[in-house]
């Protein structure tokens, strides 16, 4: 009789452990989905803020080549998002757009007239704040995706994730550095 009680207790402990693994995997999956949504929201915010920023840049007298690269990067980013080409392609397009935005902001710092023009500084300030928010959202997403990926590849949570049919998350390539943090390794970040 005591053998059956011990076995029942062991089965209950094992069942509780499997249930806790299932909850953990679901929590990681839910957090990953929520943080990816946050990245999407911030990217949408940037696309809305780009319209007045580009209008201000075009009338600012900055180097036309820099302006064209910003407009081209925005077009590429928009096309990738509309065609839903995948997270890696989207990350590359968004990083190129961030690099173009930071290039324009860095060049605008060299023009004293632009520092006093609210028509430029207003949209530029909003965009800089959004760039920081995007960088934070990408870090949170990558952290959550890493945890979920780790849970999908380590035993015994691997079995639970497979039973729950949890897909492997794609990492979002790290966000481009801000204008003050840019260095010679910027092209390596975009690759």
The SS-based structural class is mainly alpha
- Residues in helices, as a percent range: over 70%
Tally of helical segments:
7
Instruction: State the order of secondary-structure elements, H for helix, E for strand.
Output: HHHHHHH
Average pLDDT figure: 86
Per DSSP E runs of 2 or more residues, the count of β-strands stands at 0
- Residue stretches low in confidence (pLDDT < 50, at least 5 long) are 174-191
Largest sheet: number of strands, sense, barrel closure? none
Terminal-residue CA separation = 65 Å
| Spatial extent as radius of gyration | 23 Å
- Provide the β-strand percentage band: under 5%
Query: What coarse outline follows from CA principal-axis ratios?
Result: elongated
Describe the oligomeric state of these chains in a short phrase.
Answer: single chain
Give the helix/strand layout.
Elements: H1 2-58, H2 64-83, H3 87-108, H4 112-115, H5 118-153, H6 157-163, H7 186-190
Helix pairs in contact: 1-2, 1-5, 2-3, 3-5
Please characterize this protein's 3D structure.
The protein is mainly α. Helices cover 79% and strands 0% of the residues. α1 packs antiparallel against α5.
Task: List the main descriptive attributes of the protein structure presented here.
single chain, 191 residues, mainly alpha, 79% helix, elongated, disordered C terminus
């Amino acid at each position: 009789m005591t053998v059956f009680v011990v076995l029942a207790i062991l089965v209950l402990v094992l069942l509780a452990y499997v249930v806790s693994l299932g909850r953990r995997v679901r929590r990681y999956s839910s957090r990953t989905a929520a943080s990816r949504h946050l990245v999407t929201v911030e990217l949408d915010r940037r696309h809305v803020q780009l319209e007045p920023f580009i209008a201000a840049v075009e009338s600012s007298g900055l180097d036309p080549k820099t302006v064209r690269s910003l407009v081209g990067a925005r077009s590429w980013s928009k096309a990738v998002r509309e065609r839903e080409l995948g997270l890696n392609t989207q990350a590359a397009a968004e990083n190129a757009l961030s690099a173009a935005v930071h290039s324009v902001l860095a060049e605008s710092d060299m023009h004293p007239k632009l520092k006093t023009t609210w028509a430029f500084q207003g949209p530029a300030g909003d965009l800089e704040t959004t760039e920081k928010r995007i960088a934070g959202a990408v870090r949170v997403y990558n952290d959550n995706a890493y945890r979920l990926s780790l849970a999908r590849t380590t035993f015994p949570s691997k079995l639970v994730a497979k039973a729950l049919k949890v897909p492997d998350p794609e990492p979002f390539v790290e966000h481009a550095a801000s204008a003050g943090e840019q260095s010679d390794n910027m092209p390596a970040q975009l690759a």
